[in-house]
Write a structure and sequence with these properties.
The protein has 194 residues and is mainly α. The protein has 6 helices and no strands. The protein is elongated, with a radius of gyration of 43 Å.
């Protein structure tokens, strides 16, 4: 009985690990960030290969052309020599111009990025996220409108209160001026009467 329970535990643990690996693999295929990272890595590998083709890699273009020339028959040896020399000439022409080669690679990459269609996982990710983006945009517009209306209302109320307060203060000042004028008048009368 003890061995069977140990075997069952080991079997369960093995199945858990297998399921965990399967779930991780599924997650890796559908998470937008990982999709983007895979696309970036593929682009890096492609541009690295392009760079090696344009600027030369560990083994030179001349070596590749030379091995091709060895396979050709003797009847086309003159054509083979010209073919073998052409890659070497291209390598010599671009060897001192990595900026030109880089600009060409950048231009080709930009052109490919513009021409290549979206992949299906990217399209699904955008479609899955688009309703949330639309809802957030709508909510932000509503909040913005409410904030604008609240600010306008508050500004109108504050302006009205300021206007009323200014009017009240103006009346107070006018009343105080009248009282001061009366007192002055009364004081002048008293002084003249004395």
């Amino acid at each position: 009985m003890g061995q069977e329970s140990e075997e069952l535990r080991a079997d369960i643990e093995q199945r858990r690990e297998s399921m965990s690996e399967t779930i991780d693999a599924i997650e890796d295929r559908v998470v937008p960030g990982r999709i983007i990272e895979r696309r970036r890595q593929a682009a890096r590998e492609w541009t690295g290969g392009l760079r090696d083709r344009v600027m030369g890699s560990g083994h030179t273009v001349g070596d590749q052309a030379g091995s091709a020339a060895d396979r050709l028959s003797g009847g086309v040896s003159q054509a083979t020599d010209k073919i073998a020399q052409a890659p070497e000439q291209l390598q010599r022409a671009t060897a001192g111009s990595p900026l030109i080669a880089g600009a060409l690679a950048f231009g080709i990459g930009a052109l490919l990025a513009a021409v290549l269609p979206e992949t299906e996982p990217e399209r699904r990710a955008v479609q899955a996220v688009q309703p949330q983006v639309d809802a957030a945009t709508g909510a932000l517009k509503d909040v913005g409108q409410q904030a604008l209306q609240t600010a306008e209302s508050s500004a109108r109320d504050a302006a009205q209160e300021l206007k009323e307060s200014a009017a009240d203060h103006a009346h107070e000042v006018a009343d105080q001026a009248k009282d001061a004028g009366r007192q002055l008048k009364d004081n002048v009368r008293e002084d003249t009467a004395d």
